[in-house]
Specification:
This protein is of the alpha+beta class. The chain folds into three domains: 179 residues, Alpha-D-Glucose-1,6-Bisphosphate, subunit A, domain 3 (Alpha-D-Glucose-1,6-Bisphosphate, Chain A, domain 3, 3-Layer(aba) Sandwich); 223 residues, Alpha-D-Glucose-1,6-Bisphosphate, subunit A, domain 3 (Alpha-D-Glucose-1,6-Bisphosphate, Chain A, domain 3), CATH 3.40.120; 134 residues, Alpha-D-phosphohexomutase, C-terminal domain (TATA-Binding Protein). The protein is built from 18 helices and 28 strands. The protein has a seven-stranded mixed sheet, with helices on both faces. A seven-stranded antiparallel sheet has the order 21-22-25-26-27-20-28. α11 links the parallel β16 and β17. α7 packs across α13 and α10 packs parallel to α11. The longest helix is centred in the last third of the chain and has 18 residues. The protein is globular. The chain starts with a strand and ends with a strand. The structure holds alpha-D-glucose-1-phosphate-6-vanadate (VG1) and cobalt (II) ion. Keywords: Carbohydrate metabolism, Glucose metabolism, Isomerase, Magnesium, Metal-binding, Phosphoprotein.
Length: 566
């Protein structure tokens, strides 16, 4: 355990408080710095227990405040997905922010703020950035995970250069600063101060809802819902409940009860707030086996992911991105066309085919939304997405779950057909990318790294060799050169590309907290005149067996089958 060596009280000359005496500023010294605060794919994620260690959260926050540009005199956006630890973290960050000379923090009632809504607030208020308290789709509660996401002034996840600098700072940290102050009440909107720092508690839903109204034609969506088109949304007891209620049940006139699990809970009701067929099984069952709804959707813990379902129909996220791109003109915000599109490397090439037809650029980036930021800022792309249930546009700098739901409803409102019809018509025009992701969760770390390193060392010899009844045309560890700032990112996943355009990608997750998670991404293309109605697991069977044999997945993970199949 790390003990506080001594506390030092400082004369607080910077502090000008509305209170009669300014708050006391303190510095807390660390015995030894923490050496495990390296942010992963999106922020720092650890178990709640790790975050509850003395000084652990404070250390990471200090590293952020010492590294993020513009803290002195700047405005910060602060909130989270409502998970266990949210309130305590907001209190700590406010008192540390005051000690570091922030001039203003905008936080939200009950600290509820979705990741895309935070991104919007950063941009709308010209803030220096934001801190979002979330471990996204990871489970919450005292026995679950907690997380801290750091966003920059553009509203997007901090670039690697910044997260590396934060990590370096945390490893060398000797002390942190905070002030002693009363806990700011978050139950209702209001204006407060801690010393010279203003704390504005605002409704975290309002600005976001206004933004959505600018992007989409709510009247038309309302007309669709009014006709015989019942919709259902599962907020998974996470952050999107209040947003979805205001949007769907409020503005769009869907009946009360449309939003299920709509009250954010500290432990997400014991569930796993990950909108996929495994963890949102109840919703999946309603749509895939029931007949009551025409459209269903769910979002993850912090509201940036989305799953779209139609009656008897699951929309693969890679297809979803392609379909949004192909139909973008139906939404007022994108009626003038798209500047370009981007997808993460493991995402299927379905959107590439659309981009080609639209004659626009299509970029392939590493996994993680931070890599889209430069392309969005430079106006090179309008839409982007990931296979992991993430889609978004230039309206914010994060993926945006409810935005995707509204976009789908807009398409359905224009086309007046079923989700399944949208899918089959898309495939018959562009061909179909059969796609699946197999996740092996919580594998012993050595086994996962052993498997990965072995496969990586085999790659050079695979080129030209047979694999899954095809020939390997390229095999490498993906690296990315940012077309905007020229920065290079190496080692982003092992790719086995086959001569017919099919491929297998293998990565280790950068968001898991228990052991290691192996992700295997599988893809093959069927042209528009081919067989478009297979079960993806069947269409991909050769690739599934091929990679298992090559990488010895079952043997080395000790698992007969993946934990999650998407
Ligand atoms: C996963 C997804 C990735 C996504 C990231 C953050 O990362 O694969 O596409 O950007 O989560 O999403 P990884 O490293 O575990 O594969 V979220 O909604 O958890 O912030
Ligand atoms: Co998320």
């Amino acid at each position: 355990m790390r003990l506080i060596r001594f506390d030092e009280e400082l004369p607080s000359s910077l502090m000008t408080s509305s209170a009669q005496t300014g708050p006391t500023q303190r510095q807390v010294h660390l015995n030894t710095p923490f050496n495990d605060q390296k942010p992963g794919t999106s922020g720092l994620r650890k178990s709640s227990k790790q975050f509850e260690q003395t000084n652990y959260l404070e250390s990471f926050i200090e590293a952020i405040f010492q590294t993020l540009p513009g803290v002195e005199g700047g405005t910060l956006i602060l909130g989270g997905d409502g998970r266990y630890g949210n309130h305590r973290a907001i209190d700590v960050i406010l008192r540390m922010g005051a000690a570091h000379g922030l001039s203003r923090v905008i936080t939200t009632t009950n600290g509820i703020l979705s990741t895309p809504a935070a991104s919007h607030l950063i941009r709308a208020n010209k803030a220096i950035g934001g801190i979002i308290l979330s471990a996204s789709h990871n489970q919450g509660g005292p026995d679950g995970d907690f997380g801290v996401k750091v966003n920059g002034a553009n509203g997007g996840p901090a670039a690697e250069s910044l997260t590396n600098a934060i990590y370096a700072c945390s490893q060398a940290l000797e002390k942190y600063s905070l002030v002693d102050a009363d806990v700011i009440p978050l139950e209702t909107p209001g204006h407060h101060a801690i010393g010279g720092m203003t704390v504005d508690v605002i409704d975290g839903v309002e600005d976001y809802v206004e933004l959505m109204q600018k992007l989409f034609d709510f009247g038309r969506i309302k007309d669709l819902i009014k006709t015989d088109f019942p919709v259902v949304f599962d907020a998974m007891h996470a952050v999107t409940g209040p947003y979805a209620k205001r949007l769907l049940e409020g503005l769009l006139g869907a009946p009360t009860g449309t939003v299920r699990n709509g009250v954010p809970l500290e432990d997400f009701g014991g569930g796993h707030p990950d909108p996929n067929l495994t963890y949102a099984a109840e919703l999946a069952d309603l749509l895939l086996n029931g007949k009551a709804y025409s459209f269903g959707a769910a979002c993850d813990g912090d509201g940036d992911r989305n799953m779209i379902l139609g009656r008897g129909c699951f929309v693969n996220p890679s297809d979803s991105l392609a379909i949004l791109a192909a139909n973008a003109n139906v939404a007022p915000a994108y009626a003038d066309g798209l500047a370009g599109v981007a997808r993460s490397m493991p995402t299927s090439a379905a959107v590439d085919v659309v981009a080609k037809q639209l004659n626009i650029d299509c970029f392939e980036t590493p996994t993680g939304w931070k890599f889209f930021g430069n392309l969005l800022d430079a106006g090179r792309i309008t839409l982007c997405g990931e296979e992991s249930f993430g889609t978004g546009s230039n309206h914010v700098r994060e993926k945006d779950g409810l935005w995707a739901v509204l976009f789908w409803l807009q398409i359905l409102a224009e086309r007046r057909c079923s989700v399944a019809d949208v899918m089959t018509q898309h495939w018959s025009r562009f061909g179909r990318h059969y796609y699946s992701r197999h996740d092996y969760e919580a594998i012993a770390s050595e086994n996962a790294h052993g498997l990965y390193n072995r496969l990586e060392s085999m790659l050079p010899r695979l080129i030209g060799q047979p694999f899954a009844g095809r020939q390997v045309s390229q095999a490498d560890n993906f690296s990315y050169s940012d077309p905007v700032d020229g920065s290079e990112t190496q080692s982003q996943g092992l790719r086995i590309l086959l001569e017919d355009g099919s491929r297998v990608v293998v990565r280790l997750s950068g968001t898991g907290t228990k052991g290691a998670t192996l992700r295997v991404y599988l893809e093959c293309y069927e042209p528009s005149h081919g067989n478009l109605n297979q079960d993806p697991q069947h269409a991909l069977a050769d690739l599934i067996n091929g990679i298992d044999a090559l990488a010895e997945i079952q043997k080395r993970t000790g698992m007969q089958r993946p934990t999650v199949i998407t």
